Fold this protein.
Amino acid sequence: DYEVTTAGAGDSLSVPADAVVWDAEGNQWQSVGARVRAISKVTFDYSKYFDSKWHHGQPITMADVVYSIAQGLTSTVVYGILEDKKRNLWLSTDDGIFLFNIKTEKFTQFGIEDGAQSLEFSGGAYLKDSEGIMYFGGINGFNYFNPDSIVINSYIPPVVISSIKILYEKI
């Protein structure tokens, strides 16, 4: 469970004195510091998950807070989370839409090149309708899709150099 708070245009929010942020380089939690301001913040309540288990039987601990970073989530701002029929999670962020595949435990990012209206989405602007269609609103409109129709292309084509020119002359 989480709560997203956004300050709005030209405003900022005070960050709690006990707030922490994960320092991936130092591999440790660091205090955010006193009198820090932010344009948005996400407050996670992990308490209901502690003493429970993940789908593969492992207990949930505070270490799981940093799990998403290691699995490919490049954003620390999550505006909305929706679950599809396969129990995968779809997240709208400030760096596009992410799919968390529950089987592979990896994130796939979808950005502007994939048809996203922008990389920046908006807090509270997400919905899954009765047919499973997902809607995510952002700063340039909204995206909607059926997660069952999204196909991940894992094919990486080979790179072939067919010719080289120097000063317009073929070598």
Summary: The chain is about 0% helix and 40% strand. The two ends are 61 Å apart (CA to CA). The CA atoms of residues 8 and 47 lie 29 Å apart.
